[in-house]
Amino acid sequence: MSKTFFSAFSRQRAGRLLPAAALVAASLALVPAAAHAAAGAESPPGARAAAGQPRGARIVVPPVLLGDAADCAILAGNAVTNTGQTLVVGDVNVSPGTTVNGFPPGMVRGSIDQDNAEARRERAAAIVAYNDAAGRPPTATVPQVIGNDAVMTPGVYDTPSDGFILSGTLKLDAQGDPNAVFIFQAATLVTLRVSNIDLLNGARTDNVIWQVGDSAFLGTLSTFRGNVLARNSVTVNSGAAMFGRAIALNSVVQAAGTTSGPATRITVPTNPPTVTTLTSSPNPSHVNQPVTFTATVMGTDQGFVPTGTVLFRNGSVIIGSAPLNTSAVATFTTSALPMGARQMTAVYVPNGTAVNEGWVYFEPSQSAVLVQQVIR
To answer: What family does the database annotate (predicted)?
Structure first.
């Protein structure tokens, strides 16, 4: 199937998209939306479950793959503009336009590609990702204003209003699953001044997708985590810190840098990975016998020791947690395991690790399954 991209997804739910004639001329084969099976997150209070999806059902959402676009901190169709002090960590790409203005005074720690083969390839990957996100059936419909310390679990969210407004702090809770995916679908996105997104219990920036049918505006001094896939434009206002990617497929990414103090930031997630291992003793164990689980987290950032918490899971259920000690080891003891072969995992949930006068943020990780045999 080949047609001007997005036209198959110009329904209201996918973001109230503009007519296809408004698009930059481009024809790409659309990627069919994958089937989305149920089993993984609960709808937030007040959410309306999608048709056929029982309220409170747990769901698993497949990831939206950015492909070649993953290296881009900024990707625009027509132009990238900046004023003042802005730090971009990652590549800056524009295609089919060629305009990139404002660097310097802005600084780019990455490459700048202007309608060359790489820029065209990465824009094509971003279009596929946009269409994938737009084509996902929503698992819940929520009010226009989100945040204000609300906690949302993995899922695909839309709103009956024209767009999302982020106020205060929005907390995205992965519930101990580092692969948990959050997709937000709307025509517009506005984050208010000093608003914030917190990632909890293993949530990862790469798995937070904001599919915007028109344009996105990140407010002054806001802290934003996630990837904006906008059909038209993205504006990052003065002093905002964006951890993710600003992608404006048809128009402009505009950054308003600061004149003093910390620079406006647009940063591709570059957190060092971790590896979590899990052991237990004794194994096998008897019913009502205490079993001690030991999780070890290895970081890859120049020997710095990860800090944070480990969640211990029996199947998909979190049964306990413990902080990492100074050797990045956490232990948890329980005598409440039922009889049988218990599928145990440990999930590392990071917090910032102080390094000199800065911080290192390690990636969450999950151990391989450890089978704990519980006998009579």
So the answer is: Belongs to the ice-binding protein family.
- What per-residue confidence (pLDDT) applies to 85? 97
Distance, CA of 180 to CA of 62 (rounded, Å) = 8
Q: Are 166 and 190 in contact (CB under 8 A)?
A: yes
- Assign 99 to helix, strand or coil: strand
- Number of neighbouring beta carbons within 10 Å of residue 107: 14
Question: What is the spatial distance between Cα 185 and Cα 15, in angstroms, rounded to a whole number?
Answer: 6
Predicted local distance difference test score (pLDDT) of residue 59 = 73
Q: What span, in angstroms and rounded, lies between the C-alpha atoms of 145 and 138?
A: 17
d(CA 333, CA 281): 9
On whether the CB atoms of residues 59 and 40 are closer than 8 A, the answer is: yes
Contacts of 36 (CB under 8 A, 6+ apart): 59, 60, 61, 62, 136, 137, 156
Task: Name which of 148, 190, 192 is nearest 170 in CA terms.
Answer: 148
Is residue 197 within 8 Å of residue 217, measured between CB atoms? no
Q: What domains are there in the chain, each with its CATH number?
A: 2-267 (no CATH), 274-375 (2.60.40.10)
Measured distance CA(177)–CA(53) in Å, rounded: 21
Residue-wise pLDDT tens digits, 25-49: 333 333 333 322 222 333 333 343 3
**Token couple for 217:** 């505006």
Quick one: which H or E segment has residue 73? Answer: strand 72-76
DSSP string, 178-209: TT--EEEEESEEEE-TT-EEEEETT--GGGEE
Please give the Cα distance from 155 to 316 (Å, whole number): 16
Tokens 């990862």 sit on residue: 204
Report the percentage of the chain scoring pLDDT > 90. 75
Burial (0-12, 13-18, 19+ Cβ within 10 Å), 18: middle
Average pLDDT, the chain: 85
Cis peptide, bond prior to residue 96, ω within 30 of zero: yes
Gap between the Cα atoms of 56 and 72, Å rounded: 36
